[in-house]
Amino acid sequence: LDAFEQLLLANSGHPDKGSELKVDFIAAGLDDVVASASLEQFAAPDDVKWFASFAKAFINTPSCGEAMDATGIADATRRESWNTKLDEWTSDPAAYFAMAWGEAVGRVAA
Fold it and tell me: Minimal CA–CA distance to 105: which of 27, 21, 5?
């Protein structure tokens, strides 16, 4: 995940933005701000295979490869090793992945 976070940061992304949403919404003048979190998990074999397929498609897109090359995050050899590791991971009966999502809703002041 370190490389993924580096890629997000290199593209002006904010990998920890979910934890900042409530304060940002309040600072923007929204009322009745409610923050929450959810956990997306991939545990069943079909879900693990789907996530691995999604991850491989992402890291193998030309734009992602170009960005990783340009920033030095990962060259083609390293990205290919990730593909291999993802394939191996999908056959592990203990394979599991989860990611947390920060969420917030607010109301525009009348």
Answer: 21
Q: What three-state secondary structure class fits 35?
A: strand
pLDDT digits (tens, 9 = 90+) for 46-78: 999 999 999 999 888 898 888 888 888 889 999
Global pTM reads: 0.76
User: Are 59 and 65 in contact, with CB atoms under 8 Å apart?
Assistant: yes
Q: Which of 99, 104, 103 is nearest to 8 (CA)?
A: 99
Q: What is the DSSP string of 43-98?
A: -SHHHHHHHHHHHHHHHTSHHHHHHHHHHTS--HHHHHHHHHHHHHHHT-TT--EE
* Cβ atoms of 82 and 59 closer than 8 Å: yes
The amino acid at residue 33 is: V
For the purposes of burial, counting CB atoms within 10 Å of the CB of 56, is it exposed (0-12), middle (13-18) or buried (19 or more)?
Answer: middle
